């Protein structure tokens, strides 16, 4: 007797249907525990997925996806915390090595627009090793082919695919020099990834080196691809910041003295560093009639191109006033304040101007809201007591008494901007104390060179260097040693 019950379709237990989880592509294969074997190499015997019940297989896949997402999250969080191109490239190399199972690697930054900057960073490779790799003809190396094919922004169809060389010894089409370099450095395979996206265009390439013949499996390729796209966008942002910093630094250097004057009886040295946002800190030294010398430091409020332009105008105006009435620093700053108030009423500035007569070892100076100079010598290290006054542009009429100073032979007078103090990250009273201690600790052998004095103060006060800014402040340090 025929049955009317519907016939059930047989269930394919070998390929259970996996649900699509939000944010996870269920078509991506699960992560293996070892690198994918090469053709002809037998894989280790492992339990087949078909031996697991469907529910257990789903849980295993979900657990592996969650683990991969957690790993990517941790790696991208570490990358976000990098603030320079070199630091970011090193982080990309380390993270990529972990994702593809390699031990060494190299990253090349070479933006496709040709505007630079360019850099080469190695992981587990000495500088000489990087030079050896670069002797491989560019058109035949994996990373060189990627660099030559990098697109400019807006051309996603031109983004080259990653290049895997599974075995340098047997790969067809390789240049003999490539095999020679691989044998010398002891690597047998490589995986090269383009650092390129649709929005950022091509920025460079990264290549990881395997000690044995190998290549990333599908899961590893998928993960390094996701990480590479994120890394490229982060590198693009850092690249924009670096280019802006270089442009600001170039403009600033053009607005500051190209060289310091030579005046009998005094030796000069200057140190200047532009912050990432480009502030308006400046310095100047100009010879005046009768063997005199004008020394000035100052800071204009604001950052960016407008502050740089205002700094240039202010410095040029001070030079003119110094030539006309430099022997009276109060008159120089009064004229400068009037000009600032009439031409740029929304801006303020601090300034310090000193009229020096090296032959007489005499200095007359006045300051407007500026930090006091510091005298450094064998018998004393002390701040010059200047009268407290407001910055230029803050009052309807500025005026403050001048101060006269007589440096002893061999003493150095340090003029600086507030950025030097703020870079320490300390409160101002603590920053002044640290500056005093740094100046007092200048070795006796360095006291005869104002440049060495300035460098010692910078190294002692900012041991982490000028690259790690607290507020991105400009730093100006002008040293004058009297003979």
Brief summary:
Helix content is 35%, strand content 20%.
Radius of gyration: 32 Å
Helix content estimate: 25-40%
Major β-sheet, in short?
A: 5 strands, antiparallel
Sum up the overall morphology in one term.
Answer: elongated
Average pLDDT: 84
Order of helices and strands: HHEEHHEHEEHEEEHHEEEEEEHHHE
- Give the uncertain stretches in residue-range form: 1-49
* Strands, total number: 15
Distance linking N and C termini: 123 Å
Across the major sheet, the strand order is 2-1-5-4-3
Query: In percent, how much strand structure appears in the residues?
Result: 15-25%
SSE-based structural type = alpha+beta
Q: What's the number of helices? A: 11
Description of the molecule:
It is a single chain. The protein has helices at 54-80, 85-100, 127-133, 142-148, 176-185, 218-255, 305-325, 329-343, 418-422, 428-440, 450-461, and strands at residues 104-109, 119-123, 163-165, 189-197, 201-210, 266-273, 280-288, 292-300, 349-357, 362-368, 374-376, 381-383, 403-405, 412-416, 475-482. The protein is α+β, with helices and mostly antiparallel strands and 483 residues long. The strands form three sheets. A five-stranded antiparallel beta sheet has the order 2-1-5-4-3, with helices on both faces. A hairpin with a 3-residue loop joins strand 7 (280-288) and strand 8 (292-300). The longest helix is centred in the middle third of the chain and has 38 residues, at 218-255. It starts with 53 loop residues before the first helix and ends with a strand.
